[in-house]
Design brief:
The protein is globular and about 45 Å long. The protein has an eight-stranded mixed β-sheet. It has a domain of 122 residues: Gcn5-related N-acetyltransferase (GNAT) (Aminopeptidase). The longest helix has 17 residues. It contains six helices and eight strands; from the N terminus they run ββαααβββαβαββα. By secondary structure, the chain is α+β, with helices and mostly antiparallel strands. It starts with 5 loop residues before the first strand and ends with a helix.
Length: 179
């Protein structure tokens, strides 16, 4: 179940690996705008990143680095993990760390490509996610690409010392629902 290399119109999705252990990636994890709603970040180091990437390489998970086709620049990561093979459900996560690439539609393009892979190749029936409720740009993106709200958790997630509400969302494999 290692991540295969995938492509979309403007992007290449490469298996996340030790090759991605660079200072630019560390800078994303130390940028409050980037890590604000993540479980990790702040005081990140190249050593922590190295250990994280070794761990990713040793796990049997779907985790990709998002690269621009035009220049091979690594701009973020996307994953589906964990996956419940019994329930055919996977948990989605994305990080667009390179702020110079924000607002260009790469998050939507990445999400749609990976979700298509999950439905057509893995055979998942549902992909889920959690998003901090006040992250309005992310919530709007997820709704735009077809996610529906399934739950709302009050003062659930701590980001930078503040507790936030979290929206649980899901997108369903329409083909499996129709058959």
């Amino acid at each position: 179940m290692k991540s295969p290399e995938l492509n979309s119109e403007r992007l290449v999705f490469k298996p996340l690996s030790i090759k991605h252990c660079v200072h630019e990636y560390v800078s994303w994890m130390n940028d409050p705008e980037v890590y604000r709603c993540l479980e990790s970040g702040l005081n990140y180091s190249i050593e922590l990143l190295y250990d994280f990437l070794i761990d990713v390489e040793n796990k049997n998970i779907y985790f990709w680095a998002i690269h621009l086709k035009s220049n091979n620049k690594h701009i973020g990561n996307i994953k589906i993990d964990p996956i419940s093979t019994n329930n055919l459900v996977g948990e989605y996560g994305i990080l667009l760390g390179d702020k110079s690439e924000w607002g260009k539609g790469y998050a939507a393009e990445s999400s749609l490509a990976i979700i298509k892979f999950c439905f057509e190749i893995i055979g998942l029936r549902k992909v889920t996610l959690g998003v901090v409720a006040d992250n309005t740009a992310a919530v709007a993106l997820y709704k735009k690409i077809g996610f529906q709200q399934e739950g709302y958790y009050k003062i659930h997630s701590c980001c930078s010392g503040i507790f936030y509400d979290v929206i649980r969302m899901a997108i369903f494999n329409k083909y499996l629902l129709e058959n």
